[in-house]
Amino acid sequence: MKAQRAAAPRPPRVRARTTSIAAFVVLAALIPTTASASGTQEIEVELPYVCTLPSGQLPTTVRISAEFPERADAGETFSPSGVTTTVELPAEAVADLTGRGAAQVRAATRLEVGVAQNEATAKATWRGGAEPVALPGSGPLTLVSKGDVPSVAGRGDGDLTFTAGALAVDLALDAADPAATDPAATDPAAPRTAATGPDSGSDSDSDSGSDALTVGCALAEDAPGQGLLATVRVGADGSPSPGGSPSGPDGASRTPDREARGHGQEERQGDRSPEVLQTPPGAAPDRDDVPPCRYDEQHPPTDVSLNAYVTGYANVKKMKGAAYLPPSCLLIEQGIPVDGPPDPEHIIFDTVSWANFHYQGRKETPPFPSTFLSFDFAPVKATMVLEQTGPIRIDSRIKLRLSDFTTVTDTYVRAPLVVHVTDLEVNGTPLDVGPDCRTETSLTSADPDPANHPGDHLVLYGRGEQIIGQEATGYLLLSGGTLSGETTIPAFTGCGTADGEDLDRLLTASVSGPGNHIKQVQGQTCAIAAPVFPTPETPGQCTEDLQPYEIPVAEH
């Protein structure tokens, strides 16, 4: 069966179905390339906030840690790394949550960060997700989130400052006994609850199973340094260049055309403002360097089939480095949206979709090499494959706010994946790992809904928002985007041969363990039933042979 090129625009029903479903972004390689930490500054700032909960305004402690470069060139783009936002809600807040029948919470944070240089300003949103946390019997509730941080570039010479601003904490509240309150616990076809509202104030779902609450927090007036997080020197000495033109994100000098034409001071400041980029710049691989990503006779498409390339990085905590997965092909079958729980302020849809890796007819990534330093001194080169042990499940919830038609999409991806090591070299000497060197079980994450999703699997989370008339931000199916999560790498087994050295303990000691943060990027999808081809006026979504047109770039 061969998919035919569509001659007519996509039917409205197909388009609506496509835009309401999230796709998948996969885990990166788990043997790292060592990263240099030279020229960086580590910051950890504790700030007082005031958060608004149902019981009123409560003092809250927020700790922010990250790594910034000590300096950067004008026009040079960089992204803070290792960003962690820790929110400590007081005991009164815990009482608010337990009063709503919650036993544990899942949190997502949105921190507004002001970026300033030479009196010109810009804003960035630092997003993070936290593992599920049981509500304590007494004392405060601590939520630790990690996630996506936009890149920044100074337009000219001068200190670039980062300042914390408003904070929103989205809380999904899970009941103590899901079977007693959530129909999905006993009926797999029932809608699931896993979303939160986008507002900066308190907001909640009205269904009686899992509740949701968005807590808005403001920086306290007595915050030290008025929320200053870090200062990065830009230029040779960090001081403004007298009379010089500000430079753009590519380092090219900008001409003062606007000033010559008599535009106001506000527009000139906008031209000088630091550049905030949701996607850091980079060079996408050539199409000849990525595996094919198309449906075939053994894998025929349907009217809801999509394909996309995915890539990304994963931190390996033990190795203090990040591992890279080159673009890999994913085939996605969209589910049909069903009505979610009633909500007086939103229209809600829930969707379950499924996906598989696709490489030479197998449900796995292509093999990829990675080089690292084992125990900080021995160079090791490993070739690996990520293999599925079952189908990849994608749970999406779409909330359309009736007041302004803003949509928020929350996506949870559950992927059972093992790491298979096919080749290993230590200091240039090959070691025979045998044919079955792999992790004992799938990569594992704390699941937000373990009663309905038991077993070992990786969990990734992403949120997308779209305001009418503006481009979407975060993760959405058609435009792609990032998802993130944290995983435990299991012990290795089967590594070595009967007459050779047992390598299980070496790999387990070097790599296995918890706390490995993941950030993955999906490119624009290609809808097989109604492909969009490039024109001089519009970018393409599909190539002529129905492969994804976009090859994404991994982000740290």
What does this structure look like?
- With 556 residues, the protein is mainly β.
- The protein is built from six helices and 31 strands.
- The chain has helices at 12-19, 91-98, 178-181, 257-260, 265-272, 504-511, and strands at 40-53, 56-69, 71-72, 77-78, 81-89, 102-117, 120-130, 133-134, 141-146, 151-153, 160-175, 211-219, 228-234, 275-277, 305-316, 321-333, 338-339, 346-357, 368-374, 378-388, 392-401, 407-415, 417-426, 429-431, 438-439, 458-466, 473-474, 481-489, 492-493, 513-522, 526-527.
- The strands form five sheets. Strands 15, 16, 17, 18, 21, 22, 26, 27, 28, 30 and 31 form an eleven-stranded antiparallel beta sheet that branches. It has an eight-stranded antiparallel beta barrel with strand order 1-2-5-9-7-6-11-12.
- The two termini are 39 Å apart.
- 43% of the residues are buried.
Summarize it.
The chain is mainly β.
Major β-sheet, in short?
Answer: 11 strands, antiparallel
Helix/sheet category: mainly beta
Percentage of residues in DSSP E strands: 35-45%
Shape: globular
Distance between the termini: 39 Å
Proportion of helical residues:
under 10%
Radius of gyration: 24 Å
- Summed up, the helix count is 6
Give the number of DSSP strands. 31
Poorly predicted tracts of residues: 1-38, 177-210, 238-270
Average pLDDT works out at 78
Oligomer: single chain
Q: Can you tag this structure with a few keywords?
A:
single chain; 556 residues; mainly beta; eleven-stranded antiparallel beta sheet; eight-stranded antiparallel β-barrel; 6 helices; disordered N terminus
